[in-house]
Amino acid sequence: MPHTIWKGAISFGLVTIPIRVYAATEERGVSLHQVHATDGGRIRYRRICELDGEEVPYRDIAKGYQLPDGDTIVLTDEDLADLPLVSSKTIEVLQFVDAEEIDPINFTRSYYLEADGPGGKPYLLMRESLGRTGKVAVVKVALRNRESLALLRPYGDVLLLQMMLWPDEVRAADAFAPSDDVHVRSQEIDMAESYIDTLTAPFDAGEFTDQYREALEEVIEAKAAGRPVKEEEAPVPDRGEVVDLMEALRRSVADAKARRGEDAEPAARKSTAKKAATKSASKPPVKKAASKKTAAKKTAKKAAPARKTA
């Protein structure tokens, strides 16, 4: 069980939900240390004060803010704890929105919320209400000495707190877009769609593994056992030099289908048929021209004088 990183309450109108907050994720990479290459000794860093040159113990370390004139304002834990923020003890619900309105680029860390004390019933009430309406709650909360926007949403049987960035913390994307003089043809888009269709499948995170971590663990195990480390080069796909974008897309579709044991031709036929259908639909209907014989007959009939009746 992870340790509690925050304890407070959710303010849901006039309803208060006492909760505890726990980290929902953890990184599983191999932890490496800095060591002396010749003897393996750990490299340690000393906390040295730049004014007196003395090493400073953790208990004497505080946070500080440097002013434009160079002076430093020292902030103690008490200063930070006494900030007049409602969100330092309460997760305040600001509004409810559809989850699709929030772009994932805004999300950062995730936390599980656990009902604390008598909070079980109102906790369940909020979880079920959000689940039925399909909404998420936009909230404000102060964690780790900073106030953040966040989303509150159901995640299985629990409420999940999804931390968010402030709008000015997301960089504008305009400068990274291709220039306006770059264009793609409809045939290239059709073939790209075929490649997307070929690789489309239900997402299952369990199908993917961290190959870098596995390879690093094998190297560590071999060295610990005194075995020689296997020197294997990473497989490099034989892509060749493809200058034409359409040809690169055709090869991509063929390779993807080959990996699945499928035939690449249906995708090409589908792309051609789609192109033909689109081209046909864009043309206006053309009337069938009358034959010369029919046209002449109609002209003669029109020119013939009417017979007189005796």
Structural features:
22% strand; two-stranded antiparallel sheet; 7 helices; 9 strands; 7-stranded mixed beta barrel; alpha+beta; Ku70, Chain: A, Domain 2; 310 residues
Profile the largest sheet.
7 strands, mixed, barrel
Overall radius of gyration: 34 Å
Within the largest sheet, what's the order of strands?
1-2-6-9-8-7-5
Q: Give the number of helices.
A: 7
Q: Give the N-to-C terminal Cα separation.
A: 117 Å
Order of helices and strands: EEEEHEEHEEEHHHHH
Indicate the percent of residues in helices: 25-40%
The first-level CATH class name of one domain: Mainly Beta
Output the structural class. Answer: alpha+beta
Overall body shape = extended
Write structural notes for this entry.
Among the domains are: 1-26 and 83-169, Ku70, Chain: A, Domain 2 (Beta Barrel), CATH 2.40.290.10; 185-197 and 243-274, no CATH class. Helices cover 30% and strands 22% of the residues. It is built from seven helices and nine strands; from the N terminus they run E-E-E-E-H-E-E-H-E-E-E-H-H-H-H-H. It has helices at 77-81, 120-133, 186-199, 211-224, 245-259, 265-282, 292-303, and strands spanning 6-12, 15-23, 63-66, 72-75, 90-98, 107-115, 135-143, 146-155, 158-164. Strands 1-2-6-9-8-7-5 form a seven-stranded mixed beta barrel. A two-stranded antiparallel ribbon has the order 3-4. The longest helix is centred in the C-terminal third of the chain and has 18 residues, at 265-282. It starts with 5 loop residues before the first strand and ends in a 7-residue tail after the last helix. 10% of the residues are buried.
